[in-house]
Amino acid sequence: MKNKKISIIIPCYNEGKNVELAYAVLKRITRLEKKYHFELIFIDNGSLDDTKKHILRLAKQDPIVKGIFLSRNFGPEASTQAGFDYSHGDALIWFACDMQEPAAVIPGFIRKWEEGFDNVVGVYAKSEDSWFMKILRKSFYDVMKLIANVDIPINSSGFGLYSRRVVEAMRSLPEKYRFQRGIRAWVGFTTSYITYQRQARQFGQSSYSVMSYFRHAERSLFGFSYLPLDLLIYVGLLLVFCSFIFIIAYIVFFFLFGNPIKGAVTILVAIVFFGGINLLALSIIGKYIQVIVEETKARPTYIVHSTI
């Protein structure tokens, strides 16, 4: 492992108050792990505050600091992809600038890598988030565990270590509609898990709204599962079968007891029910078509404004 390089990528969006704090804690890690060379890559995802100014200052005073400044906010997946593309290390560590993931876990990631694991995934046992966000996250992972065609660890984030072969495997995938945690699970390789306690954000506010989480969940659902389409087939078959039984029963009742159904209410309920089923089916199909459109447009995941 002598003279090998480790890249630490730090995605940022409006993290002006956290950039230098993140640098300080990561710099301590680099001093502890003396047998490795390090590069700290800050990715500014179109911040509207003074995040860029802090990154520029750090890059000028410390040669291991690099800055990548995107032309606008392209979303969290774009920050990660930019870090993957611009890193040169034999291993890569993802560390969020909000410092909700403790940097003290990083040496543990490195030890696992030294043992031969290509993928070291951070899994948080506890977090300081609100009860609502805890329920939202748990529901997301429970649903993904049930329907995804890859095994995404519950309560995992991007926080972890990726060997160079994992990084190159993830970079080689051409898809634009990316969900990095799902891609990490899909590429495989030997994987180890380290648990930690997620901390409360020290400064600033999360840029993630509830709708942001739902959009992120969409990426995972429609990118790594075909179950919604499969369910449409089964629901359609069930409705056809029930309709056939209903028609037979209706004919029998009609000849034995006369017209058993009277009034417009029943017809209205049937129209609303089957109309709702059709609308739901079209919406699900439309989402998969949206993914296809995004892929066929082949736009880049991000655009870089400048680097230092």
Shape: elongated
Strand content: 15-25%
The CATH C-level class name of the largest domain = Alpha Beta
Please give the CATH architecture of the largest domain.
Alpha-Beta Complex
Rg on CA atoms, Å: 25 Å
What is the H level of CATH, i.e. the homologous superfamily of the largest domain? Answer: Spore Coat Polysaccharide Biosynthesis Protein SpsA, Chain A
Average per-residue pLDDT, rounded, comes to 78
Query: How many structural domains are formed by the residues?
Result: 2
Uncertain regions: pLDDT < 50 for 5+ in a row?
none
β-strand number: 8
How many DSSP H or I helices? 10
Please name the CATH topology of the largest domain: Spore Coat Polysaccharide Biosynthesis Protein SpsA, Chain A
Supply the helix-strand structural class: alpha/beta
State the strand order across the main sheet: 7-5-6-4-1-2-3-8
* Biggest beta sheet attributes: 8 strands, mixed
Q: Could you write a compact summary of the structure shown?
A:
This protein is α/β, with parallel strands linked by helices and 308 residues long.
How would you describe this protein?
The structure is a single chain. With 308 residues, this protein is an alpha/beta fold. It folds into two domains: 215 residues, Spore Coat Polysaccharide Biosynthesis Protein SpsA, Chain A, CATH 3.90.550.10; 71 residues, no CATH class. 51% of the residues lie in helices and 17% in strands. The chain contains ten helices and eight strands. An eight-stranded mixed β-sheet has the order 7-5-6-4-1-2-3-8, with helices on both faces. α2 links the parallel β2 and β3. The longest helix is centred in the last third of the chain and has 33 residues. It is elongated, with a radius of gyration of 25 Å.
